[in-house]
Amino acid sequence: MAQLFSNVGNLTWQQAVMWLIGGILIYLAVKRDMEPALLLPMGFGAILVNLPLSGAVTQIVDGVEEIGVLNVLFDAGIANELFPLLLFVGIGAMIDFEPLLNDPKLMFFGAAAQFGIFFTFSLAALLGFPIKDAAAIGIIGAADGPTAIFMANFLRSNYLGAIMVAAYSYMALVPIVQPPVIRALTTKHERSIRMPYRQHSVSKRTKILFPILITMVCGIVSPRSVALIGFLMFGNLIRVCGVLDALSETAQKVLGMFLTDYDPDFAASVQDGDVLVGGENFGYGHPHYVAFKALRALGIRTVFAESFNPSFYKGEVSNGVALIEVPGILKAVKRWDTIELDWDKNEVTVNGEVKLPCIPIPQRTKDIVECGSLINYIREKRL
Description:
- By secondary structure, this protein is mainly α.
- Among the domains are: 1-80, no CATH class; 252-382, Alpha-Beta Barrel (Aconitase, domain 4), CATH 3.20.19.
- Helix content is 57%, strand content 8%.
- The chain contains 20 helices and 8 strands.
- A 3-stranded parallel β-sheet has the order 3-4-5. A 3-stranded antiparallel β-sheet has the order 6-7-8, with no helix packed on it. Strands 1-2 form a two-stranded antiparallel ribbon.
- The longest helix is centred in the middle third of the chain and has 26 residues, at 160-185.
């Protein structure tokens, strides 16, 4: 019995603290639905690697080195900076630089956002961190997980693990931290201002030249940035070149694989006019542009849910998706039920029998959905 629990003596208080932190991250992911794709694996990983003599990481056992699987993955993709760079190709393929090319002065807003990096770097330096560690820690201020990993590894920081956890935790907490900060710094009137936006066409040649020229300029001014900037811009070049349209291709892949873990025949069984039914705070988390582009392509243009995440609501309504808030809808329906919506009565009928009231829909929202998108609505109003 003593031998069975002999490993308990190897437990340190630092490991116990990391168990607690891991438990908190898991709680936030599962109970609060805060970026579960980030926080759940991070929380479990924090516990996994802090078990005494954990076999998941490389350990010296009885004088023999036993290679852990996490070390293998680290050496395969993090130590050689491969995984962050591959992420940047995907990120670049998702970025639309057209608003920036329409109005180049927006670049100053992007530059101002880098204040977070310099502030975090200065604070870390003042707290006594070595300059290389402070520089790696500073990237946390950009809320950029892949870049934080890349720089911490590039600068050989001693705090790579902590920087990764802090950067991704910060990203996950942004939707929680942002609203109270915005309310504290602005008035209700200021938040209700709708700024006019007039989009000008940008030529395909300009869109193609932009990532190429950015890569060349960065390569000349800061050669060491070419790995990150180059992969980011290459992803964007794939998007805009017209030969490998990233969004169309991604949407096609999603159409083929969408929800296959849940139902392999999902894409084939959905018909034009079908609807989705969701729970509370539907759409919370990172932007779901690709997934919902795929859903719209399948013919799903209406979602009924207990409630919606505000950012998601605004984004998808502008794309012409009808988002209907119906308290109690999740318990009232099952798959393939028939749902009817009465715009005027703000009422939903399930299978012709059960009637549920929905939250009143503003007339402007109805008009945008009926026009097919916010852009179509603006064009129609101008006419």
